[in-house]
């Protein structure tokens, strides 16, 4: 199918007014779910009607949201979030869930090569694809060709460097490879030792205004908003 027609079809199945942010990477453990929940909380705190769609069978994103719902029963001041578990096999049906929302954040499993038609369809519908990448040889070797392939399809794509340590030479080398492959988000995520702690209660660093490490997430959110025109 010609690309324009495929894009039109993908746009038809998603909620007309809803911006779609697809978070995808061929590598496991690169930070997809961490980014998904922080961006969802940023949107909720900004008063934007947002939904998270969890395409990963591991359901990391949905389980986090279930913990958050339990925490909110005792502490309702934490911003309310909605995350639904969905399936890549039925990705068109999943996109219909975005009706009535202004933003949908799509968390995906790592093995993209097993789900190429679905990822392509979601890519067509997406306003932006964020590709988190840890600055290691292994991650960059699979992320760089993936980013090039997405760009060749005309998808707006941006790499978010994760666990970045500017003091290492491997950081500079890996960043260089990714910059040559495609767009790189100007803000990176450093190694944040405590990032998993709030997650046990369904929270994020953004739920605590004085958290160390909050700024990069705020900047990435500002970047995403601008890029998708929200
Ligand atoms: N910047 C960071 N600093 C420290 N730990 C991090 C950072 N980013 C992610 N992690 C940790 O790395 C692990 C993997 O992160 P996450 O679950 O977001 O990756 P993922 O890409 O969703 O993985 P999967 O492919 O398995 O779904 C988690 O334990 C998370 O807490
Ligand atoms: Mg995940």
TrEMBL record:
InterPro entries to which the protein is assigned, alphabetical: CobQ/CobB/MinD/ParA_Nub-bd_dom, DNA_Partitioning_ATPase, P-loop_NTPase
Pfam families (UniProt xref): CbiA
Gene3D superfamilies named in the record: P-loop containing nucleotide triphosphate hydrolases
Top-level division of the source organism's lineage: Bacteria
Residue ranges occupied by any CobQ/CobB/MinD/ParA nucleotide binding domain in the UniProt entry: 22-166
Protein's UniProt name: ParA family protein
Organism (species): Falsiroseomonas algicola
């Amino acid at each position: 199918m010609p690309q324009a027609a495929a894009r039109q079809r993908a746009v038809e199945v998603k909620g007309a007014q809803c911006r779609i942010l697809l978070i995808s990477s061929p590598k496991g453990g690169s930070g997809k779910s961490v980014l998904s929940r922080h961006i969802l909380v940023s949107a909720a705190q900004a008063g934007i009607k947002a939904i998270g769609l969890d395409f990963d069978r591991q359901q990391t994103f949905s389980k986090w949201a279930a913990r958050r719902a339990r925490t909110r029963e005792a502490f309702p001041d934490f911003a309310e979030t909605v995350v639904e578990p969905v399936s890549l096999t039925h990705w068109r049906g999943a996109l219909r869930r975005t009706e009535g929302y202004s933003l949908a954040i799509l968390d995906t499993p790592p093995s993209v090569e097993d789900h190429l038609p679905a990822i392509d369809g979601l890519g067509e519908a997406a306003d932006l694809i964020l590709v988190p990448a840890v600055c290691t040889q292994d991650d960059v070797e699979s992320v760089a060709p993936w980013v090039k392939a997405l760009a060749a399809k005309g998808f707006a794509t941006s790499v978010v460097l994760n666990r970045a340590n500017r003091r290492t030479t491997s950081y500079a080398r890996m960043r260089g490879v990714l910059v040559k492959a495609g767009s790189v988000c100007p803000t990176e995520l450093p190694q944040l030792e405590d990032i998993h702690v709030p997650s046990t209660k369904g929270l994020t660093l953004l739920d605590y205004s004085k958290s160390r490490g909050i700024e990069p997430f705020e900047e990435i959110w500002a970047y995403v908003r601008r890029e998708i025109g929200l």
